[in-house]
Amino acid sequence: MKLPIVCIIGRPNVGKSSLFNRILGRRAAVVSDRDGVTRDRHYQNARFKGHEFTVVDTGGFLPDDTIDVLADSVRTQIFNAVNESDLVLFMVDVRVGITKLDQQFARLIRKLDKKVILVANKSENGGDRQESYEFLKLGFGQPRTISALTGYACLSLLDEIIAVLPTPVRGERREERPIKFAILGRPNAGKSTLLNRLLNEERAVVSDIPGTTRDSIDCDFVVDGKKFVVTDTAGLRKKAKVDDEVEIFSNMRTLESIRRSDVSVLMVDCTRGLEIQDFRIITEIRKAGKGLVLLLNKWDILPNKTEKSFDHMVKEMMEREPMLEYVPILSISAKEGQRINRVIQAIQTVYANCRRVLGRDNVAQAFAKFIEENPVPSQNARTVQLTRACQIMVEPPVIAIETRTPDLVAESYKRYLMKKFFEEFQLQGAPLRLNFDMKLTLRKDEELEQFTESSNSVLAGVDTQRHMDRKNRER
């Protein structure tokens, strides 16, 4: 069945990706205060009150005279998305107010005869909401004041969205969404060798899909009936060492591969060990909220290898980065094919952990047990109380913990709770996050399961792997 399409547009940094994530109930797009985090179209399926639709995140609209070399491409992608959509959400920033770029963009959109809802974002404060009426000048009617970051009025916006969308047309084929993973690492860590090894498995059916960038090829294959899409990436170098324009974009594409993957596979040359740039890559993976599998490659040529070499190397890495305790670490030889089958198994495990609904009662009971075993320490002679906990997101899994004093929760106690949740629910590889909030918004298991179900399938023939990065903002 062909789903109706909702397209989110606006100038840079008005909160398009934040609203995209809010509609999905999970972090599918990276959000940053920096302009230019999204360039290409990003498609995901969403479900609300039994209604399913496709939502599209787009890059920020830039003027003709911008110095951004990719501005023309971004504009093309935006208008392609608008033309295929059934509903357009035109976003503005109520704090900044109406800009010349808003007006220029609105004039172009009005010519397309599309159903448009004007969304005035960042309206969590009453004073800001009162200023929203100046956006009537854009010609899209009364603005809907929301806050994509806090969730203010977003449910009302979703009610309006499903009310105006057409009924889905049946008859179009749907497919199970493949597991998408990116192979990452420093230059010459063995990424392409692993890719070739994975695609040369006798039981894998292989076909090439042109990627969204000039030098990137996404390959899809099937293992034991399960579909995968793998992206090989250029080696990610230190920014200080990147002064060639081609290599700059290569790094950007690597970061983009992280964002549009479900799981990131970090390859480390075990003869060199973890280096500073590997830790930078791990940081980018965490910031993107993606699962992680770490591979110690070239194990066949590790000098002076003994039975305890693996344990010693893993212990040393955990001393430098304690969070690696919760990440699957494998020693492999991509060249010789050693333990390659375990790589696929680890990817599947981490993918499942990222999407797990832990169970509202299970989280509450586990949280109560953790608090009883190790009470919350006071801070600056003030009592710190953590009252309850609930999972509020999947992909990545997020557990919200209610407290009147979130700023007083000791970092050591946060690490304690993180460790206990990982151990209790066996979330190896998942980017679990703990939020400490003054007011907890409880989510039912059924709501979280809906988010998982809505991302389980894609329309056959619709490319859901879209994005690229942009840099400049025009007000």
How do you describe this structure in short?
With 475 residues, the protein is of the alpha/beta class.
Question: What tags apply to this protein structure?
Answer:
single chain, 475 residues, alpha/beta, Rossmann fold, GMP Synthetase, Chain A, domain 3, seven-stranded mixed beta sheet, six-stranded mixed beta sheet, 13 helices, 32% helix, 22% strand, globular, disordered C terminus
How would you characterize this protein structure?
This protein has 475 residues and is α/β, with parallel strands linked by helices. It folds into three domains: 5-171, 3-Layer(aba) Sandwich (Rossmann fold), CATH 3.40.50; 178-354, Rossmann fold, CATH 3.40.50.300; 360-454, K homology (KH) domain (GMP Synthetase, Chain A, domain 3). 32% of the residues lie in helices and 22% in strands. It contains 13 helices and 18 strands. The strands form four sheets. Strands 9-10-11-8-12-13-14 form a seven-stranded mixed beta sheet, with helices on both faces. A hairpin with a 2-residue loop joins strand 2 (42-48) and strand 3 (51-57). The longest helix is centred in the middle third of the chain and has 15 residues, at 245-259. The protein is globular, with a radius of gyration of 23 Å. It starts with a strand and ends in a 16-residue tail after the last strand.
Q: Would you spell out the secondary-structure blueprint of this structure?
A:
Elements: E1 5-10, H1 16-24, E2 42-48, E3 51-57, H2 71-84, E4 87-93, H3 100-110, E5 116-121, H4 126-130, E6 144-145, H5 154-164, E7 174-176, E8 179-185, H6 191-199, E9 205-210, E10 217-223, E11 226-232, H7 245-259, E12 263-269, H8 276-287, E13 291-297, H9 309-320, E14 329-331, H10 340-354, H11 360-373, E15 386-393, E16 398-403, H12 411-425, E17 433-437, H13 445-454, E18 457-459
